[in-house]
């Protein structure tokens, strides 16, 4: 017996080290009061043996539970009732135990702290073109789908314990709308501006209060909300398709009407004055920074804020410039584009043809506020290249390309091999024509000169023979000289025209 106890002690002391089991505990908190919190214990170094997980929290009244698992993971779901638990930090602990001949002994312990909150958690998400924005920038003149993304456990709590859930939407402290689906569609028309979005989700944690004008519908509500709590999950997932063959179709449909359309119309028709008052109180809460929540204790609310900036996406990108280059020339391109600055850009020089995939990335980026930039590059080889331009702004990115062809100087020489002889031939032909024309004109004028000379001879008798001879000779020279220009050019021109 003593030996058995001794060996037991031995196991107790050394098993922790020998077994190598490690334990970690996490929660899906923070969570709003009233929702379920799930704790997850994970064991590493698990060998397939049965394990016991013993949980407890430090809340009053306390929750405890223990599970025997044959796997390395254990979940504990705890419901923190709204009217029993305060909003504060709680600690949850778990003991991991192993069995030795039916006796459970402690291997290790883990703990976690989670926060129970008064208001709903989650966050406000901006969605454009069915994509959640990764930042606070949205594109101008395109609908922005704003929605409050709640944790699953809080959605479940609201579904089970509220008949009206309304989200009030404010933009720059101006009331915009109230919706029952946690979302708002809004288009911002003003580029380069900032706006402040406030969303207040309000859920009553009770059946719909009886309102005189809509007595009939409210009575059905009270019955359905209390009875069909278990079918809520299936109800909401199949909302677009009311025609289900399940036996709960009638209650489902009734609940559908209550949760979606009815609160809206009730609020709008019967209690519009009340809503107005409430809206101003909410507006004070949102805009005047008042800490007084304008709703009763029986309500659960969540306040979400987000500042957004409206920008213009990159809509057109043009690359212009010479894309046929002689080898050795610098590539000089102009890249022009539209959109809101600042821009980050880079260029990739890829040999050969390249088709853009759209996900090209750069390691080095240049930032500019200008709507254009030059690209200068030297290609050492003479081939085809593709210049890929990646341009980004706060809204998005664009990838564009230009194909560059580089021809060698040899191509130029080949060209002159053809051009030069042709040019010389033309010149030769011109000269021949020129020469013939010149010759013809001169012979014609020589006759004329002789005539003229003869007349002159008649008028000037007093000149000596040698004087007359000299004059006529000079005139002959002068006339041929003058003829050189005018008629010849017209001849030449004619030649060229034919
Ligand atoms: C649902 O709301 C009622 C009224 O506020 C509250 O008493 C009850 O505890 C809530 N249920 C849960 C699960 O918190
Ligand atoms: C838990 O066990 C599963 C298989 O049973 C294994 O795939 C997983 O890696 C284990 N996890 C840890 C943390 O050991
Ligand atoms: C819970 O703990 C966190 C982190 O330690 C702290 O920021 C927060 O204020 C605490 N909440 C309450 C209600 O004490
Ligand atoms: C919380 O968990 C319990 C037990 O799993 C379940 O019955 C209850 O409907 C859950 N409540 C909420 C609000 O999810
Ligand atoms: C709001 O936009 C989303 C996403 O574009 C769309 O699914 C939804 O139907 C729109 N809602 C309304 C009320 O127009
Ligand atoms: C919702 O209510 C309207 C009128 O109150 C009714 O005509 C309609 O059939 C109801 N829808 C469902 C899904 O029950
Ligand atoms: C709001 O209240 C005023 C007086 O307090 C009344 O004249 C008006 O008709 C009410 N409006 C509605 C929509 O009930
Ligand atoms: C709102 O209150 C917070 C803290 O109470 C303070 O830091 C902030 O400056 C206030 N804002 C305005 C607009 O009064
Ligand atoms: C790009 O070219 C098109 C067509 O020539 C022109 O309409 C557009 O304005 C140009 N865009 C920019 C940013 O220069
Ligand atoms: C680029 O795309 C065109 C047509 O889509 C295709 O003919 C060509 O082969 C592609 N080039 C490369 C390098 O992928
Ligand atoms: C880019 O897209 C191409 C084809 O679409 C794919 O093969 C490649 O893996 C992608 N690269 C990255 C970094 O996503």
What do you see in this structure?
With 498 residues, this protein is an alpha+beta fold. Helix content is 33%, strand content 36%. The strands form six sheets. Strands 2-8-7-4-5 form a five-stranded mixed β-sheet. The longest helix is centred in the C-terminal third of the chain and has 51 residues, at 409-459. The chain binds 2-acetamido-2-deoxy-beta-D-glucopyranose (11 copies). One 2-acetamido-2-deoxy-beta-D-glucopyranose is lined by residues 87-89, 115. The chain crosses the membrane at residues 415-439. One of its GO terms (cellular component) is plasma membrane.
Would you kindly provide a brief summary of this structure?
With 498 residues, the chain is an alpha+beta fold. Helices cover 33% and strands 36% of the residues. The chain is built from ten helices and 25 strands.
Low-confidence stretches: 208-271, 448-460, 479-498
Average pLDDT over all residues: 74
Query: Tell me about the biggest sheet?
Result: 5 strands, mixed
Bound molecules: 2-acetamido-2-deoxy-beta-D-glucopyranose
């Amino acid at each position: 017996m003593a030996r058995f106890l001794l060996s037991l002690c031995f196991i107790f002391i050394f098993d922790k080290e020998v077994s190598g089991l490690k334990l970690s505990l996490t929660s899906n908190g923070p969570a709003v009061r009233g929702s379920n919190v799930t704790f997850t214990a994970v064991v590493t170094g698990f060998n397939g043996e049965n394990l016991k997980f013993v949980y407890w929290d430090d809340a009053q009244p306390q929750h405890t539970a223990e599970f025997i698992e044959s796997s390395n993971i254990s979940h504990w779901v705890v419901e923190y009732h709204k009217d029993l638990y305060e909003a504060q930090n709680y600690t949850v602990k778990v003991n991991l135990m192993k069995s030795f001949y039916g006796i459970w002994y402690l291997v290790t312990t883990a703990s976690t702290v989670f926060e129970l909150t008064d208001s709903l958690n989650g966050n406000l998400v901006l969605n454009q073109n069915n994509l959640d924005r990764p930042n606070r920038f949205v594109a101008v003149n395109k609908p922005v789908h704003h929605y409050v993304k709640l944790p699953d456990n809080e959605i479940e709590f609201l579904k089970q314990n509220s008949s009206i859930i309304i989200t009030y939407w404010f933009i720059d402290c101006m009331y915009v709308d109230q919706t029952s689906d946690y979302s708002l569609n809004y288009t911002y028309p003003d580029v380069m501006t900032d706006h402040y979005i406030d969303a207040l989700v309000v859920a009553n944690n009770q059946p719909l209060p009886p309102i005189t004008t809509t007595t009939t519908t409210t009575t059905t509500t009270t019955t359905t909300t209390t009875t069909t709590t278990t079918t809520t999950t299936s109800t909401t997932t199949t909302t677009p398709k009311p025609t289900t063959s399940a036996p709960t179709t009638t209650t489902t449909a009734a609940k559908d009407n209550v949760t979606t359309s009815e609160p809206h119309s009730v609020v709008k028709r019967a209690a519009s004055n009340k809503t107005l008052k409430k809206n101003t109180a909410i507006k004070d809460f949102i805009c005047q920074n008042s800490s007084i929540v304008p709703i009763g204790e029986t309500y659960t609310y969540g306040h979400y804020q987000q500042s957004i900036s409206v920008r213009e996406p990159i809509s057109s990108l043009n690359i212009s410039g010479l894309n046929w280059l002689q080898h050795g020339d610098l590539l000089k391109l102009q890249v022009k584009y539209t959109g809101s600055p600042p821009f980050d850009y880079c260029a990739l020089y890829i040999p050969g043809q390249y088709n853009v995939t759209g996900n090209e990335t750069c390691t080095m980026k240049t930032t500019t506020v200008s709507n254009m930039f030059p690209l200068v590059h030297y290609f050492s080889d003479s081939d085809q290249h593709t210049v890929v331009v990646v341009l980004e702004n706060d809204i998005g990115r664009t990838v564009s390309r230009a194909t560059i062809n580089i021809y060698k100087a040899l191509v130029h020489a080949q060209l002159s091999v053809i051009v030069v002889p042709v040019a010389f031939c033309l010149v030769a032909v011109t000269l021949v024509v020129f020469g013939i024309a010149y010759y013809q004109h001169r012979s014609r004028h020589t006759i004329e000169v002789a005539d003229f000379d003869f007349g002159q001879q008649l008028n000037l008798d007093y000149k000596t023979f040698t004087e007359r001879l000299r004059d006529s000779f000079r005139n002959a020279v002068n006339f041929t000289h003058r003829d050189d220009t005018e008629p010849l050019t017209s001849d030449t021109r004619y030649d060229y025209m034919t």
